[in-house]
TrEMBL record:
Pfam families: TetR_C_1, TetR_N. Residues 3-63 form the HTH tetR-type domain. The lineage of its organism: Bacteria, Bacillati, Actinomycetota, Actinomycetes, Kitasatosporales. Residues 26-45 bind DNA. Keywords: DNA-binding, Repressor, Transcription, Transcription regulation. It comes from Streptomyces glycanivorans. Gene3D superfamilies: Homeodomain-like, Tetracycline Repressor, domain 2. This is TetR/AcrR family transcriptional regulator C-terminal domain-containing protein.
Length: 202
């Protein structure tokens, strides 16, 4: 039997997620996979909600460890690349967007502050930077939710002939461009407004 610790429990839980999907993930199945009794998992996670939160945090590691912006970076290019990185990371796991939705990025707060500081130092008004980051994050989660729910491309055969088939990546890029263009417009001379925290902004 493999020696179990917190990291192994989370890693195996994510592998289970990829195999069966979020709805079928259970502590019973996870315990069986690990070769332990179900109650022993409570040593590491008091509730399933705690386990899911740890899974969500671990699933975000590829994005959470991506290089932070530097003073010489173009903020528009960075904003686009940062949002794409978030999307790629969500897509790495089955039901990745559902797992992430509603989670609190406690471990990322310092990185988020540094990203915000970069945008503000680049001339983006603080309130607009917060709003744009929040909008881009929620847009990305929603886009990936739709993409991961669209598991059967054959379903498009039932659509009306004049109904366009959605290419998820192209649709994402188009929406990202609209957000970025709106932020660039708000950042143009004479367009900035009062700054301040936006409730729920990341």
């Amino acid at each position: 039997m493999t020696k179990v610790n917190r990291e192994i429990v989370v890693s195996e839980a994510l592998d289970l997620l990829d195999e069966v999907g979020l709805d079928a993930v259970s502590t019973r199945r996870l315990a069986k996979r690990l070769g332990v009794e179900q109650p022993s998992l409570y040593w590491y996670f008091r509730t399933k909600k705690d386990l899911l939160a740890a899974m969500a945090e671990a699933a975000m590691v590829p994005h959470a460890t991506a290089p932070l912006p530097t003073p010489g970076d173009d903020w528009r290019d960075w904003f686009a690349d940062n949002t794409r990185s978030f999307r790629r990371t969500l897509l790495m796991r089955r039901d990745g967007a559902r797992l992430h939705a509603g989670s609190t990025p406690v471990g990322d707060l310092d990185r988020i502050r540094r990203k915000m500081g970069f945008l503000v130092a680049s001339g983006v008004p603080e309130r607009d930077a917060q709003t744009a980051m929040l909008a881009a994050g929620r847009f990305t989660v929603g886009s990936v939710l739709e993409e991961q729910a669209d598991t059967d491309p054959g379903d498009s055969a039932d659509l009306p002939a004049d109904m366009p088939v959605i290419d998820h990546e192209s649709a994402f890029e188009a929406g990202l461009t609209l957000i970025l263009n709106g932020l660039a417009y708000r950042t143009s001379p004479g367009r900035s407004e009062s700054t301040g925290p936006v409730p729920g902004a990341l």
